[in-house]
Amino acid sequence: MIEKIEGFTRKYYLNRLIQGVLVGAVLWIVFYLLINGLEYFSWFPSKGRFVLFLFLLVGSAFVLVYHFLIPLVNLIRFRKKMSVEQASVMICRPFDGLRDLSVFRLRD
Predict the structure, then answer these.
(1) CA torsion angle for 27, 32, 37, 43 (degrees, to 10)?
(2) Which of 4, 20, 23, 76 is the most buried (most CB within 10 A)?
(3) How is residue 106 annotated by DSSP?
(4) For the segment 5-60, what is each residue's pLDDT rounded down to a tens digit?
(5) DSSP per residue, 26-95
């Protein structure tokens, strides 16, 4: 039972990584197009373009860290991993009939 719960935890973090990569890529593309559109239609001076470039760098760093690196670190388990009890609560959440979680409390 513990192996199945740990398998669920790995799949959960892998799904979070895939979701983060997809959402991050879309956010980066939208952010890039928005900044390019502002520059194209506004004709900023060099200082204005530099500020837009800094916004692009900060936005890219945020997308990279929040949507890619944090899920990757969770998948590799450098941080504190999800406990068996937390995973069992997540597994039981969609099922209304499973309110008694004492079955999943696995103490050694």
Answers:
(1) 140
(2) 20
(3) -
(4) 888 888 888 999 999 999 999 999 999 999 999 999 998 999 999 999 999 999 99
(5) HHHHHHHHHHHHHHHHH---HHHHHHHHHHHHHHHHHHHIIIIIHHHHHHHT-SPPPPHHHHHHHHHTT-
Distance of CA 20 to the CA centre of its chain: 4
Q: Which pair of tokens denotes residue 82?
A: 């999800």
d(CA 29, CA 37): 12
- State the Cα torsion 15-19-24-30 to the nearest 10°: 170
Residue ranges per structural domain of the chain: 2-103
Backbone conformation region of residue 46, classed left if phi is above 0, alpha if psi is from -120 to 50, else beta: alpha
The burial of 103, by beta-carbon neighbours within 10 Å (0-12 exposed, 13-18 middle, 19 or more buried), is given as exposed
For the chain, what's the residue count? 108
**What confidence tens digit (pLDDT) does each residue in 51-98 have?**
999 999 999 999 999 999 988 888 887 666 777 777 777 777 777 665
